[in-house]
């Protein structure tokens, strides 16, 4: 093969550039930078390892409390985030800016002010700071403690027993957050049927909140009259008790027994009725004794002589 001529050597770079341009035209376009950016929102302060799990503020009624929310944009395009509060305590929040634009690979700290209402009762309140942007929404928990006398009051009500289920409702009548504990006891005609010691329930009851719950009783009796008693307690001396009664009867035997009782009562009633009718039958008059005939001839003769 003959070596390339000078003209061919000059044409090679041109052909290489044309081929590269053709390949670039066939390749798919690069992803646009306006795709949803990666971002986070959390309480300000600390690092990723020791970041605060929620915003916590504490003050007396009428106090204005300050904090900050950090929005971090790790994407390659600017990100616009809208901020608002949600929930009871979230409704007390006002941000320095309701809409914030965070440049790429940058973080912004947004001040917030939380005003405790003048009529707020002492105790715990909760809510959320909501950040929405890039098609996503992040909720940061907010907890507020209103300083003042704390009242822990817990009630149990609407206790009902149905088959193998005990139904009841818990009500937080105080102003403190409660974590209730429950004990269950059931007494029957012949003694104790159920005795469950006090145990914590998997819930946190906010002030004024009411929840309905059920307690399973898979080994409920088939035949008995029972009284179920519930006792609830919580920290701060909160406690209450309530009870309900129920009668358990097996369906088929109950129907058969009822028919036997009704049949026996009908037989007794029928016998008594017959005896009463027999006692009321009219008595026969005593037989009339036959009298000898009266001889009237002497009486006639005596009358003639007179």
| Fraction of residues in H or I helices | 10-25%
In the sheet with the most strands, the strands line up as 2-9-8-4-6
Which structural class do the helices and strands define?
alpha+beta
Total beta-strand segments: 16
Largest beta-sheet details: 5 strands, mixed
What low-confidence regions span 5 or more consecutive residues with pLDDT below 50? 21-37, 260-269
The overall average pLDDT, rounded, is 81
Beta content comes to 35-45%
Cα(first) to Cα(last) distance is: 205 Å
The gross shape turns out to be: elongated
Number of helices: 4
Q: State Rg.
A: 48 Å
Secondary-structure element string: HEEEEHEEEEEEEEEEEEHH
What does this structure look like?
Strand 12 and strand 13 form a beta hairpin. This protein starts with 5 loop residues before the first helix and ends with a helix. It has 306 residues and is an alpha+beta fold. It is elongated and about 75 Å long. The model is unreliable at 21-37 and 260-269 (pLDDT under 50). The longest helix has 29 residues, at 251-279. It has helices spanning 6-26, 87-90, 251-279, 297-305, and strands at residues 39-43, 55-59, 64-73, 79-86, 93-95, 99-102, 106-115, 123-133, 136-146, 154-162, 165-172, 181-188, 191-200, 210-216, 224-234, 238-248. The strands form 4 sheets. Strands 2-9-8-4-6 form a 5-stranded mixed sheet.
């Amino acid at each position: 093969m003959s070596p390339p001529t000078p003209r061919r050597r000059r044409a090679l770079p041109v052909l290489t550039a044309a081929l590269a341009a053709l390949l670039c035209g066939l390749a798919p376009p690069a992803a646009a930078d306006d795709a949803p950016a990666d971002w986070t929102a959390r309480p300000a302060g600390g690092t990723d390892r020791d970041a605060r799990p929620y915003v916590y503020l504490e003050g007396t009624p009428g106090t204005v409390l300050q904090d900050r929310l950090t929005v971090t944009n790790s994407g390659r395009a600017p990100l616009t985030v809208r901020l608002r509060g949600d929930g009871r305590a979230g409704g007390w929040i006002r941000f320095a800016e309701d809409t914030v634009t965070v440049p790429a690979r940058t973080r912004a700290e947004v001040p917030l002010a939380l005003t405790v209402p003048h009529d707020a009762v002492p105790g715990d309140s909760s809510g959320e700071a909501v950040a929405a942007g890039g098609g996503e929404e992040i909720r940061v928990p907010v907890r507020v403690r209103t300083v003042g006398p704390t009242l822990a009051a817990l009630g149990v009500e609407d206790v009902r027993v149905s088959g193998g289920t005990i139904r009841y409702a818990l009500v937080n009548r105080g102003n403190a957050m409660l974590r209730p504990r429950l004990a269950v006891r059931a007494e029957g005609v012949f003694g104790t049927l159920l005795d469950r010691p006090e145990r914590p329930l998997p819930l946190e009851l906010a002030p004024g909140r009411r929840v309905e719950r059920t307690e399973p009783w898979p080994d409920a009796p088939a035949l008995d009259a029972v009284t179920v008693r519930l006792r609830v307690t919580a920290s701060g001396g909160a406690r209450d008790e309530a009870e309900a009664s129920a009668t358990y009867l097996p369906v088929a035997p109950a129907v058969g027994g009822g028919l036997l009782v009704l049949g026996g009562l009908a037989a007794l009633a029928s016998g008594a009725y017959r005896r009463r009718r027999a006692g009321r039958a009219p008595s026969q008059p005593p037989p009339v004794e036959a009298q000898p005939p009266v001889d009237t001839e002497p009486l006639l003769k005596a009358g003639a002589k007179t």
